[in-house]
Amino acid sequence: MESSNLIKGTAARGEIRAVSVCSTEIVEEARRRHALSATVTAALGRLLTAGALMGANLKNRETVTLRVFGDGPISGMIVDATASGTVRGYARNPQVDLSPNSQKKLDVGTAVGRQGFIHVTYALELRDPYTGSAPLSSGEIAQDLAHYFRVSEQIPSVVSLGVLVGKEGVLAAGGFMIQLPNTSASEDLVSTLERNVSGLGESSRLIHEGVSPEGILDKALEGLDFHPEERKSIVFACTCNEEKVKGALAALGRRELIEILEKEGQAQAKCEFCAQEYVISRGTLEELLQWSEMS
């Protein structure tokens, strides 16, 4: 079984659009890069999975950014996703770890917080970026995202997100999103969907048992004539690079560059999204200083 793949399609003669992903690899990559605790792995992993699902509905160079800010100890999480299948993200407090909740599961809701907001920013073609927001409803991410779609985009949605964390890392991660853009969908359609989803079980458990993203949608949309339309791979990838770091340093100006040279002799930077570290040497800083004096 591939560890990170996505499928999307339609059902009920186009009245339903659906997407499902196995996100095990991207969540494990985030856990490794950011040295996440088990609880934050589950929380950020769910948001990364959500980003992958939402990115599937974009096209070309469009992007979506999900920001979750709650009153829990994680404080906040940010995820970027693209139409091409890349995701990246980070948590403000990556080492937060809590005791299991009353169901003996990782306590994501308490770690994220139940008071706060989820913000979704779309950067789409041929229009300015726009942001929609909604209050958190549980801190569990899936419920919060479904609530966001209902109140901000007026799209009834079923969202399932799950991360199964073991002693050595991520055992399975994934989820699905089923939406009914036509709010006048028949009661029979809605009741069939509700019945199917209620008996499905947790996404991460299904993936851990070997059920593929397509298999998950087959179960969730049983009797609703699901038609797969697109499959793609999903990867954790960042847009940072050394040239961007040098550009940011150059933008500081002559005085700041001189101060860095005198105090540190070099510059260090770390990308929040992927934890990649950059060291800019004295020689490069001197070149940037010369460039700033000529410009």
Task: Describe this protein with a few key phrases.
alpha+beta, Hsp33 domain, 5-stranded antiparallel sheet, 6-stranded mixed sheet, single chain, 2 domains, CBS domain Like, 295 residues
Give a nutshell description of this structure.
The chain is elongated. The protein is α+β, with helices and mostly antiparallel strands and 295 residues long.
Proper CATH architecture of the largest domain: 3-Layer(bab) Sandwich
- CATH superfamily heading of the largest domain: Hsp33 domain
The largest sheet, given as strand count, sense and whether it forms a barrel, is: 6 strands, mixed
Number of strands: 13
**Could you please say which CATH topology of the largest domain applies here?**
Hsp33 domain
Structure characterization notes:
The N and C termini lie far apart (55 Å). Strands 7-6-3-4-5-11 form a six-stranded mixed sheet, covered by helices on one side. Strands 8-9-2-1-10 form a five-stranded antiparallel sheet, sandwiched between helices. It has a two-stranded antiparallel sheet with strand order 12-13. With 295 residues, it is of the alpha+beta class. The chain has helices at residues 24-34, 38-55, 108-112, 142-152, 187-198, 203-208, 213-220, 242-250, 254-263, 282-294, and strands spanning 4-11, 16-23, 63-70, 76-82, 86-91, 116-123, 130-135, 157-166, 169-179, 227-233, 235-236, 267-270, 277-280. α1 crosses α2 and α9 packs antiparallel against α10 (282-294). It has ten helices and 13 strands. The radius of gyration is 21 Å and the shape is elongated. Helix content is 35%, strand content 30%.
